[in-house]
Amino acid sequence: MADLSELLMMEHSAIRILSRVSYGKDSLEAFEDFNDYLVKDHVEVEERILFPVIVDFEWNDRRDFEQTVNRIKADHRLIETLADNMLKWKRSGNDDLYDLRMPLFYKTLTDHNLSEEDQIFPRWKKLEAEDRKRALKEAMSIIVETGLDRYSRNTGISREFLAYMDPGGSGSIP
């Protein structure tokens, strides 16, 4: 059975690949769309579902691990602030600053994602299968609620793939 950490790592892979080619380089609307996906889907799933579940486990290094998770959460706020500033610059006609900061935004985002893959996700498999299944189901609900079309457009992950991953075939993916 696929799980939430695998879905998030697939999203990270999509971000790494697509950031080299498209994301926001063509238009403000494309960057706004990507940023909406990032904040309302990806970060929301991590902060509302993944992090609370994984931190709640009785790790031997629980205090250190909580600090790691808190640092990752702080990265989310940093990335969101940078994106908000870029959107503000682009809307005000400061295309040079927007273009200058685009590589920094994606480097910061991809470095952050790699640190999650290294420091957070490997622990996921140690959790109870039922907790992992419930987390994936909750994540699917967020994805459906915020919009499958935007999600698919920004990740390349199809509705059919999400339906395949749907835990227990609950039918939450229309």
Describe this structure in words.
- The chain has 174 residues and is mainly alpha-helical.
- It has one domain (4-167).
- 78% of the residues lie in helices and 0% in strands.
- Helix 1 packs antiparallel against helix 4.
- The radius of gyration is 17 Å and the shape is globular.
- The protein starts with a helix and ends in a 9-residue tail after the last helix.
- 25% of the residues are buried.
- The model has no long low-confidence stretch (mean pLDDT 90).
Keywords:
single chain, mainly alpha, 78% helix
Tell me the layout of helices and strands:
Layout: H1 4-21, H2 28-56, H3 62-91, H4 95-119, H5 129-146, H6 148-155, H7 159-165
Helix pairs in contact: 1-4, 2-3, 2-5, 3-4
How many DSSP H or I helices?
Answer: 7
Beta-strand percent range: under 5%
Rg computed from alpha carbons, rounded to a whole number of angstroms: 17 Å
Classification by helices and strands: mainly alpha
The number of domains is 1
Biggest sheet features: none
The run of helices and strands is HHHHHHH
Between the first and last Cα atoms, what is the distance in angstroms?
A: 20 Å
Mean pLDDT reading: 90
| Bulk shape | globular
Give the uncertain stretches in residue-range form.
none
Task: Give the % helix.
Answer: over 70%
**Strand count:** 0
